[in-house]
Amino acid sequence: MSTPQLHTATLHDLKALSGDVWQVQLKPLTPYSFEAGQYLQLHIPGFNDLYYTIASAPQNPCLELHIQTGTDQADALIAHLKHAESVQLSDPGGDTRLSQLPVETGPLLLIASGTGFSQIKAIVDDLLAQHSTRPLYLYWSGHRLSQLYMLERAEHWADQYANVHTSALIFEQSHWDDKHQMLVNAIHGDHDDLDQCQAICCGSPAMVYTLLDALCEQGFRTDAMLSDVFQFAPREA
Fold first, then answer.
1. 3-state class (DSSP) for residue 155
2. Has this prediction a pTM greater than 0.85?
3. 126 vs 9, 35, 52, 82, 97, CA distance in Å?
4. Cβ density class 53-63: b for 16+ within 10 Å, e for less
């Protein structure tokens, strides 16, 4: 197996957000090309499987990551980054990028749970930087309000841009079926023509596949959704 090409990036900023999420800003020392929606892997001795979606748009000079703490490895990673001057990065990966969907002008549904917002943020920032007027509908869910750690940013998009619409869904007391139905109802309430929509979904395999099936029952096209889940947790044939 060939050794992956690594890039060096300096640690530009590290900041705690709400919901035990940390915002990490890395500045590559050499050009680092990627598309909004892709992820990278950090290569740090003593750590394994450090895959994180790039939360910044390609126009940004820094690579932004959102790291959820609360596990031994994530806590140790943040402790390491507090004292690190630089890190090694892999080339970007992932097919959850708009270039993988046919070009359309209908509504784009951007659906995220927790830190899945990092992928949505990169895509929205990229589209806005390109002055896109495509209707963008963001649905961000969490168990508590604190887990929507950049809600002010998402609401600012909706306030500033007429084509951006933001919905925050809090499921603190709900069972899985209730959460799923609340999300489906929110989407269907905004769109009675789901066959005109495309979607990017960032969440657990159970969330993504259950939502896809429910939307398809109401007219959504099976091939009109992108998700990293389709790559790392494909359905059995």
1. helix
2. yes
3. 21, 9, 18, 29, 11
4. bbbbbbebeeb
